[in-house]
């Protein structure tokens, strides 16, 4: 006999486990399926977790969850082959709970979250790849796994299967496959360093952490950026580059990463670190334009699979969107099961929840940011201009100084026309 | 440090059934060969006999899946429990 559940969630990442936890709490019979041996083992983060979306899901989570460090310093850096110009923000407001954001290891954090769902009653099935959906009378009615007799039935299936989102395509929600210009490829290294060294280099105390994003000439005009975050005993660093742009440039991402690591000021941060892990993952990049249809008869899609990653140009957020969309899908399923209606019409409530929440609103607000970030001058001319201006400002030699406005005009004028700078400025003003 | 040394720091459970297969006859007529540089694990290499692919060491990102325009790649996730196991992620 085929086993039947109220809801099957495919993927025990942040979206899937948040959905499973929400539904199990409300008494639904939930199966959470994960292809890895343990939740989180296939996942990679290239960002920090803005975890406040967990507040209403897990009481006191900030004291319970396996967090690496709480972020107190955020920075954006522009680098050239010689210099780093850093805009850094640190406030006492981030020193105390409730903290704004944190670094996590996915293998620990995702496992912990899946365990919360399990404790609430969800059945977690690991080591199991879902290959296809089961359809009956125009409704998704379950999943086919690779196990012998591997069919599982459910009234609703939530696809939280990550950025490749093969199931969203099988469900007919994503009409065509994701394309290279819509995603970034992230590659990451984790470096082991003594805790005292990390605290000293980054100016941190105890469980405090820092998060830096960089753009600059190391990218060789490829559209993307680099990151450097502190964990407890390790640093996470890497690059995320648009796959379409990488293809055009025909360069290996690992070369760009090495270029970044070799930059002298970055070197000072990471020096002496021992590589303990290398990883890679894709990430949705273009926001609203790649969001598929979110629901159908008996099916919903959440997290990266739905393309829910948003940037305002300064923060790059996906994990909080995954958690929030998982919760929204979970609540929608609870109501649909209560009313005995899992049709697309009933599950459209999920779309409404997304639209009304920060997910839909921010996707809309920042819908064009990736156009701005795609500007190649952000990675070549502007870091060089900023370097030269900063140098003019801080350097003393026996030549007379030039007034700021005149100096800026001459530095900029050598690289980019003033007209172009104004146009780029207007773009940023409008879209960011 | 080259990619192979980096991959030594990653745990894999390898499967005798590769999750990705490459139709090399299609590759012969491909001029762009995106696979050679988009793969973060450099699993695709150009040898005398043409494109070579090694599934062991694949990080399962999917970059080759969406980059290959010629349709030479049949891409699946590894079977449940197989493939890469990030200890940190």
UniProtKB/TrEMBL annotation, chain A:
Coiled coil: none annotated. It comes from the Bacteria. Its EC number is 1.5.5.1. Its cofactor is FAD. GO terms for molecular function: electron-transferring-flavoprotein dehydrogenase activity. Pfam families: ETF-QO_FixC_C (PF26311), ETFQO_UQ-bd (PF21162), FAD_oxidored (PF12831). Residues 184-282 form the ETF-QO/FixC ubiquinone-binding domain. Belongs to the ETF-QO/FixC family. This is Electron transfer flavoprotein-ubiquinone oxidoreductase. It comes from Moorella mulderi DSM 14980.
From TrEMBL, chain B:
Coiled coil: none annotated. Gene3D superfamilies: 3.30.70.20. Residues 49-78 form the 4Fe-4S ferredoxin-type domain. InterPro entries: 4Fe4S_Fe-S-bd, Fd_FixX. SUPFAM superfamilies: 4Fe-4S ferredoxins. Keywords: Electron transport, Iron, Iron-sulfur, Metal-binding, Transport. GO terms for molecular function: iron ion binding; iron-sulfur cluster binding. PANTHER family: FERREDOXIN-LIKE (PTHR43082), FERREDOXIN-LIKE PROTEIN YDIT (PTHR43082:SF3). This is Ferredoxin-like protein FixX. It comes from Moorella mulderi DSM 14980.
